[in-house]
Amino acid sequence: MLTVNDDQVVYSMGPKNFPVAEVNSGETLMFMTKDCFSNQIKSEGDLFESVGWATINPATGPVAVKGAKPGDTLAVHIRDIETAEQGCMVTVPEMGAAGDIIRVSETKIINITDGRARFSDKISIPVDPMIGVIGTAPEKEDIPCGTPGRHGGNMDTRLIKKGNTIYLPVFVDGALLAMGDLHAVMGDGEVSVTGLEIPGKVTVKVDLIKEKSEPWPVLESDDYWYVIASGEDLDAAADLALKAMLEFLGKRTDLSLNDRISLLSACGNMEISQIVDPLKTIRFGISKTIMKNYDLRF
Ligand code: CA
Ligand code: CA
Questions:
Q1: Beta-carbon contacts of residue 215 (< 8 Å; ≥ 6 apart)
Q2: Containing H/E element for 74?
Q3: pLDDT tens, 134-180?
Q4: Residue 146 Cα to ligand 2 middle (Å)
């Protein structure tokens, strides 16, 4: 199995990034990933201010997939996420959703034992590892790894985790898959702007779906389909996610537009992924059980 080392990173996803490796559709490979601070924060004395912005949000890769062309979709099946045993979080004045009331910059080091993040003497959190940054190369311009978009990127969606599949649109030959920014655990919203940031390794199987794509990334879990859209603010993201889900269902069912809107109003779930990145991210989900008579496929 191919392993992509964490010294092979990009800080933006773009069409001109040179692939560090090439794989075939159907192949399984592993990405070693640094944390979002390029592993520079090692103790509570290492403050965010000491970390250079130049090395924020490294994504390991990119890896080219043979035969991938614009208009295709890259299905990335997340087989496993293994994290280190220590991660960090930061709270920084003017950063994140509560930055206006933070007075002092602090770093919190959190150890993981027996599958639980030891937040304090009184609080431990079950880990639920996820991928913050995962994407293909956008068509024209480089997009920094800290920004989400139609190509994926910094979606900070806690359901991008083991067992689930993320379907990413392909915009350039080879697709150019890269990923990083693992979180041992993260809440919806990611209000401080950090999950439990942690290095690790991700095992994925990639499958190319030819000449078929959706305008935004799609996530499949055992029991739900989601579309993941990002916009200037939550209202814009919500509108994009709703329209993307209506389109997704429109291509795969015989339901009229008005019926699809009613269906989503009755049992679709609009959920917040994150509210702290340069664009905000909303996911819209529909239960597979509800849709079972349609046997939805990507
Ligand atoms: Ca992130
Ligand atoms: Ca992060």
A1: 150, 169, 244, 247
A2: strand 73-83
A3: 999 999 999 999 999 999 999 999 999 999 999 999 999 999 999 99
A4: 9
Same domain, 187 and 287: no
Q: What is the pLDDT of residues 203-235, one digit of tens each?
A: 999 999 999 999 999 999 999 999 999 999 999
174: Cα within 13 Å, side-chain hemisphere: 18
The CATH number covering residue 155 comes to: 2.60.120.580
- The answer to whether the beta carbons of residues 68 and 174 sit under 8 Å apart is yes
Q: Can you give the pTM of this predicted structure?
A: 0.98
- Ligand 2 centroid distance, CA of 184 (Å): 10
Residues 201 and 266 reside in one and the same domain: no
Number of independent structural domains in the chain = 2
Segments in the chain below pLDDT 70: none
Q: In angstroms, what is the span from residue 270 Cα to ligand 2's centroid?
A: 22
Instruction: Give the DSSP H or E segment for 265.
Output: helix 257-267
